Amino acid sequence: MQHQQVSKTVAVGIPPDQHASSLKVEFWSKMRRQGRKRPYTPNFKVEISHPRRFLLAGEESSLTVIFCPFRGRRGQYRDTMLLTFKDSESGKEVKIRRRLTAVVTTGEDFHLLRPTSDYTPRMIRPRVDPKDIVPGPTGPALSEVKWVHPLQLALVPRKLKAVLSQQRNNDVEMRNILINLGLIPSGPLTEDNHTRLFRALLHVEEESLSLDLQLYDMTGVVLKAHGDFYMLRVAGLSEGRPSVIVGDSIRARASGTKDRWFQGRVFAVLLDEVKVKFHGSFDEAIAANADVQFELNRLPLRRMHQAIDVQLPSTRILFPAEAHIQGTGDPGSLPQPCNRKIAGNEQQLHAVARITNMPPGSPPFVVFGPPGTGKTMTVVEAIRQLTLKAPSVRVLACAPSNSAADILAERLAAEGMSPSELFRLNAPSRSREQLPKGLATYSRLSADNVFTVPPVNVLSTFKVVVSTCLSASVPYGIDMPRGHFSHIFVDEGGQAMEPEALIAIRTLGDAYTNLIVAGDPKQLGPICRSRIAEEIEPEDSGRHLGLGWSYLDRLMERDMYDDGYRGVTWVKLLKNWRSHPSILEYPNEAFYQGELEAHADPAVVNSLLRFESLPNKQFPIIFHGIAGKDEREAESPSYFNRDEASLVKKYVMELFDDKRFRLKDEHIGIIAPYSAQCGKIRQLLRKQFPARNIKVGSVEEFQGQERRVIILSAVRSKPEGEDEDDRHGIGFVKNPRRFNVAITRAQALLIVIGNPDLLYQDEHWRGFMAFVDRNGGWTGLEPDWDTRERDDTGFADAISEAVEQADRQVPGRARTIGMGAQRGGGRSGARQFNPRSAEQGSGWRNAL
């Protein structure tokens, strides 16, 4: 980009009936930087045509505002120009504020990614319970299975429903009302109230989920026929807005009528569409213009209710104490590993030895696995050692997601377990296409080509059964005896709600079953829709309790899992085999007490130090500061940022253009917290690289994965909507766990693109940006603060307060002077000025 200036000339004057006044022009960006050590480079300046900065009555002058983009940096440039007129006789001052805005971007990208239409937020439409419903087909079912322990309905109590339907000032007030009415148990968590508490929290969560679904009721939509099915497009689906899974029910009827509803069943969930099947009498005339309502699939909730209602034979699972420890805690002899990769890893070998030598009925054992330390590898090794050590061992291995469960099964199969030893239990609602091909022989299909489970006498012959946490209720449902499984593993335990993680152990464990929980409480946690159910403990209690905190979180807060019991009840893996030492350094200090050790292959992690855009060739991290603009379109609540998306494309082009690196598609990963931003980035990359397939996705899609290069787009540039993001488990600001996962996926190069002024509000982002700047990795929009100093002065709050104070001092509303400097294909493009009308203050005539 060439350095260019853009200017705008405006007139100012003094009315004839007023006294002469002096004129002073200041810029807020310079005012707020006074006293700070970082050099100030103005992007706006002003030239006054009048030879004196003093205007007589009736005299006019002109101001020329000049925009000077620093080295042509992209993004939104904003400042505030403050004009101060001081009366020569009275000394009274009148201030006029004008906001300045300029945009530097690649014109072609900016135009391509423009919003399809204005954003229209959804409103909850009141529902009337339908009286006349045409039932649809049943969803995928385990028709061949004989259920001995069927699921109960576990309906939300009417009184709780009634209280939750009332309007309250905030969630804290509602939570206190529920506690005072006895609808949520109060006091410390105990064995006596554990079931009652989590039953109540699940009910509260269900009401929140149901209300969420009402927000996405649709009117006048088209369902496209697709064979025996209909395809319904749902904006925001990939972000869980709304949350729809296979087996859910969707109601539809002719739009604007009071005709009967048709109940449809969801058979597939795609990126932004659902595949639905209705009764045969549902026709295309209705589908061409229909009203649609989403119904909550209660099956996951019912499975959790079933589990928490089953009594445990011992307190060692829920409330482990020192009295439950058997023996000396000596892990015994270290095994000869099946996987030679862990042969020299002391912590992994210690964990495997401890698990394989635990006496029956021991307290839960935790494998704390920070990023890149081989947590799942340790779990797989322990399972393999157990099955080789004793023929009678039976293992149930669970994980919160199908993808995590598949990884467990694939690695166990790779270690030599045969289909007669290992069974991958899949939910009937799962599509065959979602199962990795290598696991087909480890699963079972019914005559209808639907996943099923063998009879209990056959299932009991497998040495290892792998399932999701929710599907772990199936063996109990078909009457698998309690205690059949000698060991139950829960991998990625930090991502599961406590009732979800406990399904297997509460329904299938006995007094002798050993439980092993693996995960990282510093990475992704459970997603809970209800703020009331998310956290029930007072903020100052020092402990966390609620559906937003995992069973692993609660264990690690108990005295039994402090440093005094390290190696006995838990092991922390310390050797990181993934990242360059500089990429590992900040998260190591911020989240892991500086204990992690960098052991990755130097040939991999040093491979991109010659990248031309690296500000410091010895430091493979770039923070590219840019003040973009948050945008939304149509009815999708998802945000996108065109400025950041264009910058992502620029970096990808540079990486592929440098043939020294020989990068392939699978070497680059792009993370963004919003599906809309992911979509915009994919759109740019498809146009630029039609034959390439670079993965672009959310943090969840990259959990447990790594890439040679990670490019992270933070998206947000203004604070509105952060609370809503937090509620839906998206976004990076104010979410340290998501932030931690995002910055620990990279092996050799980490590029972070974001607005430093917004990200500064969060302590972890502030620390990370200071770390990058101190190491010479910063480019683009510079930080306002001195990154060499600790922020003990509340500078972020001071900036916000100063802006508000300046606004209060200036009468009227600010007007924006827009200066658009667009660029396309590396050449300068059109310049646009977009002034907005605003009120004038104090009778001063001001033509801008």
Written overview of the protein:
By secondary structure, this protein is α/β, with parallel strands linked by helices. It folds into four domains: 6-112 and 811-847, Immunoglobulin-like (Sandwich); 133-300, Elongation Factor Tu (Ef-tu), domain 3 (Beta Barrel); 316-575, 3-Layer(aba) Sandwich (Rossmann fold); 581-806, P-loop containing nucleotide triphosphate hydrolases (Rossmann fold), CATH 3.40.50.300. Helices cover 27% and strands 21% of the residues. The protein contains 26 helices and 33 strands. Strands 8, 9, 10, 11, 12, 13, 14 and 15 form an eight-stranded mixed beta sheet that branches. Strands 18-19-17-20-21-16-22 form a seven-stranded parallel beta sheet, covered by helices on one side. A hairpin with a 6-residue loop joins strand 12 (249-254) and strand 13 (261-269). Helix 9 packs across helix 10 and helix 19 packs across helix 20. The longest helix is centred in the first third of the chain and has 21 residues, at 194-214. It starts with 5 loop residues before the first strand and ends with a strand.
